[in-house]
């Protein structure tokens, strides 16, 4: 059977995925995609502006379209349909026959008929091509305005703000997100969005766009006011793309949309329509979950099974510019006889409302703005018609101390309860997968696809997983190793609270056995973070990995590399000459690192103290390249020299590097400081990234390069130096306190419950009330800094450990170098074998 | 691997104080590199172990610089390069038995550490 799918968006691709799972049915599928790239994740489109690439957003698994029975045609727009002949003509000129045709054409952005809307630098927000055009324009703009204060409009405002534009939102209605939230919710939402630096204009009817004075456009409003802006994005709602269906004579709704029945069939039984272009029961669905449901409905029929689409719940929870917004069921209380409970906290900017049935027993709907933590519970209560507790108001009231919130334990949910609506995963499916061995969230996502689309259900999925594991008697074990029944975070807490000063003490009180190569360095790092004693002090020395023990980086042949600190990548000519002279004297291989300093390789343990002495004499100190500690603060040259720079990035980098040098952390950390938005220091790929703005410094955190690159996220903007340093103090110490061992900030951030908002709450808003403590912990580390190399060479007890043999001054005879491109390198085993022949002679002559 | 070569001879290496508790040192004994470890649970429980210093996994003479620990009942050192564990009593490599090394007898007399290689 030949199937043609018109449109390769999220819903079109879901259909193809469902069909492709079963190649046995002899389906021959052709997908027509008018865009130059296959399906991508439109739900997370705004992440394109916070660093995700088009590839990151792709929904297509590598190799997916290599299978025999599915053909994807890119840049191929369906232009006409001959229903009698059952053929589709494509923009490429081809005419393709079909047995079944599926419309998955989605929607297009509605642009209000405003005079001047065709001007240059006016955009819509729909495809990656649109985004690329916006990005190009954003780079040369100062202000940007979004027309439309709905869900997409606010997403789009976030995108403009992420590009560093002064951002405005213009809305026709009296409040933001008028469809999903009520007046009270809209008020809180507006305050929150405005706090983030976005200017909101409501009840503004744009009548014309003309040339502006303080921007390339001037938007004129019906009330006589105007707004000047450099770019405009229209996001005033969507309309179903039904033009081709209309031309083909299919039945459409009065206000558009391809009419479908419960089987998702159009007025032509050979043609289906799914997703945003389809009109079911007089209803259009602009969310991905119902679209996926329709895709599954059609797929099952094409595979020969009966299936029906039964409508969808339009509840949503999302995060708009970090503001939680949720809308459940009958949010506006339109059901006759319904009653509402409302709670509003204007100080914390939280608004919550419950709509309950006339009898008071059932939940009909709700609105949450500012905090939507109860969304999962409330949604399940509504969907499963679970009877409300005696006093339903406590469901949304803040918890007072000691009183537990009347929750709905996940145990109360029936097995059929749908937990992930995007991928139609029930509680029963999750439990079955947990029983089959998926006992961490990653494995569970893999096994069931739950939480892999919008991600909104992940907290609930986690709860179900934990409850099921508990039921199965499976321990959720995060112990560092067999010697301590604690996680790193718990060990940190014990060390701190009990004032534990040594590994021996900790092991005696809380551990067993001798310890091992996992817990020893972990505890060493915790002790160093807390008390900052010399790492080679007698009771700490035996805990250190060889890198920390020898204060240098071990290489494959057992020699070490040495990296002197060059804060901010700044080095004097004399300093550079001194480093060169040391390298030359000891015959070290010399290489420039990615962190803007110099690495000297091939040093033997007995040479290290001598090398350091010479470096110290030339004014250098340890670069901590060997430690799970601050490595470097990379910088661009900044406003001092660069004609584009707006901030002194080198000066700040030097200050930051000198402040945090020596701080022991769960894993290595790297900083970057850029002097302007051109970002030459690549600060957004670092654990801590700072970028100069006209008004101060923007602070980015939790970025990473390496194996799994992650774009850093904006933690706070336009900070003065003092606030910046304070936030970094808090951020780093919070990471030190709570991360797992060897967990980079990027992974830590991914696993942080509550995500970026929680981090902002802790670091910026001091939600936990620990900011002063974190700062004082950091102050202690900063004040007690000592150069470890200097300490090692001047302390005779330590220094005497730097020899290869305890009973001889000879060098390690297994270390052999050969020359390559004018420098040394370790010999390969074959080369070494050839050289080893001469070694006994050397040994005998000594 | 040296068992069938020379009769073993006791050689004094260093004093026990020369080895920081729960670390190792490398000794040169008849041209061989020997890793000697001082394992110290508490004051009264001190033991000294010796195995070859050369790590067959990484092809580098580094075992004396590994971290000492216990895995179940075994007392082990973790190679600092690829973290293979070697049983200090037998030289057995836990992860890859083909990388096992020789173990040597040790004794401590009047604070002096002796190894039989």
What's a quick, concise take on this entry?
With 846 residues, chain A is of the alpha/beta class.
Explain what you see.
The complex is a heterodimer of chains A (846) and B (117). Chain A has 846 residues and is an alpha/beta fold. Chain A contains 27 helices and 39 strands. In chain A, strand 25 and strand 26 form a beta hairpin. Chain B is mostly beta strands and 117 residues long. Chain B has a single domain (10-116), classed as Rieske Iron-sulfur Protein (3-layer Sandwich), CATH 2.102.10. Chain B is globular and about 35 Å long. Residues 1-5 of chain B have low confidence and may be disordered. Chain A binds chain B through residues 482-483, 513-517, 519-521, 538, 541-543, 545-546, 549-550, 554, 556-558, 801, 804-808, 810, 812, 814-815, 829, 832, 840, 843, and chain B through 13-14, 18-23, 25-28, 31, 33, 36, 39, 41, 54, 58-62, 65-72, 75-76, 78, 80-81, 83, 85.
Arrangement of strands in the largest sheet of chain B: 1-11-10-4-3-2
What is the multimeric organization of the chains shown? heterodimer
Number of contiguous helices of chain A: 27
**Biggest interface and its residues per chain?**
A-B, 36 and 38 residues
* Overall geometry of chain A: globular
Please tell me what the overall shape of chain B is.
globular
Strand content of chain B: over 45%
The CATH superfamily label of chain B reads Rieske [2Fe-2S] iron-sulphur domain
First-last Cα distance of chain A: 85 Å
Q: How many strands of chain A?
A: 39
The percent range for strand residues of chain A is: 15-25%
Count of DSSP-assigned helices of chain B: 0
Biggest β-sheet strands, sense, barrel of chain A:
5 strands, parallel
Strand arrangement in the largest pleated sheet of chain A: 3-2-1-7-19
- Count the beta strands of chain B: 11
Rounded to the nearest angstrom, the distance between the terminal CA atoms of chain B is: 11 Å
CATH architecture of chain B: 3-layer Sandwich
Number of domains of chain B: 1
Low-confidence stretches of chain A: 838-846
Find the structural class of chain A using helix and strand composition: alpha/beta
Organism (chain B): Paraburkholderia terricola
InterPro entries (chain B): NirD, Rieske-like_NirD, Rieske_2Fe-2S, Rieske_2Fe-2S_sf
Pfam families (chain B): Rieske_2
Domain Rieske (chain B): 11-115
């Amino acid at each position: 059977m030949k199937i043609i799918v018109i449109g390769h968006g999220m819903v079109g691709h879901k259909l193809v995925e469902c069909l492709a799972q079963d190649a046995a049915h002899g389906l021959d599928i052709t997908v027509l995609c008018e865009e130059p790239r296959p399906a991508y994740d439109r739900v997370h489109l705004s992440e394109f502006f916070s660093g995700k690439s088009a590839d990151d957003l792709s929904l297509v698994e590598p190799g997916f379209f290599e299978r025999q029975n599915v053909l994807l045609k890119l840049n191929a727009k369906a232009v006409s349909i001959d229903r009698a002949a059952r053929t589709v003509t494509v923009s490429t000129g081809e005419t393709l026959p079909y047995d079944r045709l599926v419309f998955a054409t989605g929607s297009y952005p509605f642009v209000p008929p405003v005079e001047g809307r065709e001007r240059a630098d006016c955009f819509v927000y729909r495809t990656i091509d649109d985004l690329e055009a916006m990005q190009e324009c954003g780079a040369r703009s100062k202000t940007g305005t979004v027309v439309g204060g709905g869900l997409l409009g606010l997403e789009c405002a976030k995108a403009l703000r992420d590009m560093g534009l002064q951002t405005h939102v213009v809305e026709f209605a009296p409040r933001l997100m008028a469809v999903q939230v009520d007046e009270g919710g809209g008020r809180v939402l507006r305050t929150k969005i405005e706090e983030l630096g976005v200017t909101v204009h409501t009840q503004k009817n744009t009548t014309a766009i003309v040339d502006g004075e303080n921007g390339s456009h001037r938007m004129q409003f019906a009330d006589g006011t105007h707004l000047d802006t450099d770019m405009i994005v229209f996001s005033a709602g969507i309309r179903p793309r039904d033009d081709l269906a209309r031309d083909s004579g299919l039945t459409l709704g009065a206000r558009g949309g391809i009419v479908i029945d419960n089987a998702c069939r159009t007025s032509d039984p050979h043609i289906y329509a799914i997703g945003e272009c389809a009109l079911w029961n007089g209803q259009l669905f602009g969310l991905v979950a119902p679209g996926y449901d329709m895709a599954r409905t059609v797929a099952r029929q094409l595979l020969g099974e009966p299936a029906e689409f039964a409508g969808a719940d339009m509840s949503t929870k999302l995060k708009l510019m970090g503001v939680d917004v949720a809308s459940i069921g009958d949010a506006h209380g339109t059901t006759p006889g319904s009653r509402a409970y409302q709670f509003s906290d204007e100080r914390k900017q939280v608004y919550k409302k419950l709509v309950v049935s006339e009898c008071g027993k059932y939940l009909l709907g709700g609105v949450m703005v500012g905090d939507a933590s109860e969304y999962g519970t409330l949604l399940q209560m509504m969907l499963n018609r679970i009877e409300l507790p005696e006093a339903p108001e406590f469901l949304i009231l803040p918890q007072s101390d000691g009183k537990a919130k009347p929750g709905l334990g996940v145990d109360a949910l029936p097995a059929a309860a749908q937990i992930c609506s995007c991928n139609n995963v029930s509680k029963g499916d999750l439990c079955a997968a947990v029983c089959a061995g998926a006992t961490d969230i990653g494995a569970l996502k893999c096994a069931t696809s739950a939480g892999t689309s919008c991600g909104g259900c992940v907290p609930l999925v986690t709860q179900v997983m934990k409850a099921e594991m508990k039921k199965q008697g499976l321990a959720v074990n995060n112990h560092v190793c067999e010697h301590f029944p604690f996680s790193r975070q718990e060990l940190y807490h014990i060390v701190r609270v009990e004032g534990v000063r040594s590994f021996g003490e900790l092991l005696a009180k809380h551990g067993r056995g001798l310890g091992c190569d996992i817990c020893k360095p972990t505890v060493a790092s915790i002790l160093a973070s807390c008390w900052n004693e010399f790492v080679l002090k007698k009771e700490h020395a035996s805990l250190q990995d060889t890198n920390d023990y020898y204060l240098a980086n071990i290489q494959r042949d057992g020699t070490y590399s040495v990296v002197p600190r060059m804060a901010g990548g700044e080095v004097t000519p004399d300093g550079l000459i001194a480093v060169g002279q040391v390298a030359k004297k000891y015959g070290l291989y010399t290489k420039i690192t990615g962190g803007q300093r110099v690495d000297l390789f091939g040093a033997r343990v007995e040479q290290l103290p001598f090398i350091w002495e010479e470096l110290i004499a030339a004014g250098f100190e340890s670069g901590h390249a060997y430690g799970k500690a601050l490595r470097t603060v990379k910088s661009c040259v900044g406003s001092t020299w660069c004609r584009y720079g707006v901030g002194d990035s080198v000066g700040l980098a030097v200050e930051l590097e000198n402040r945090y040098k020596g701080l022991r952390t769960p894993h290595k950390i790297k900083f970057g400081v850029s002097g302007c938005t051109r970002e030459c220091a690549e600060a957004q790929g670092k654990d801590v990234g700072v970028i100069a703005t006209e008004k101060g410094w923007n602070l980015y955190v939790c970025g990473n390069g390496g194996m799994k690159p992650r774009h850093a996220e904006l933690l706070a903007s336009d900070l003065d130096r003092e606030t910046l340093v304070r936030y970094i103090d808090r951020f780093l110490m919070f990471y030190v306190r709570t991360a797992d061992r060897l967990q980079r900030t990027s992974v830590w951030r991914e696993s942080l419950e509550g995500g970026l908002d929680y981090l902002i709450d802790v670091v910026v808003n001091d939600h936990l009330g620990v900011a002063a403590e974190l700062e004082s912990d950091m102050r202690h580390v900063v004040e007690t800094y000592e150069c470890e190399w200097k300490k090692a060479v001047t302390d005779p007890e330590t220094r005497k450990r730097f020899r290869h043999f305890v009973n001889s001054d000879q060098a390690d005879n297994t270390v052999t170098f050969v020359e390559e491109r004018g420098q040394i390198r370790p010999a390969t085993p074959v080369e070494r074998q050839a050289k080893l022949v001469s070694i006994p002679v050397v040994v005998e002559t000594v | 691997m040296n068992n069938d070569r020379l009769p073993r001879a006791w050689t004094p290496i260093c004093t026990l104080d020369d080895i920081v508790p729960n670390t190792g040192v490398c000794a040169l004994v008849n041209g061989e590199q020997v890793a000697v470890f001082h394992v110290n649970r508490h004051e009264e429980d001190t033991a000294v172990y010796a195995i070859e210093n050369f790590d067959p996994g990484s092809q580098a003479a580094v075992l004396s610089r590994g971290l000492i620990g216990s895995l179940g009942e075994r007392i082990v050192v973790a190679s600092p390069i690829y973290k293979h564990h070697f049983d200090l009593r037998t030289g057995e490599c836990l992860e890859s038995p083909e990388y096992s090394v020789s173990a040597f007898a040790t004794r401590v007399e009047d604070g002096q550490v002796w190894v039989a290689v």
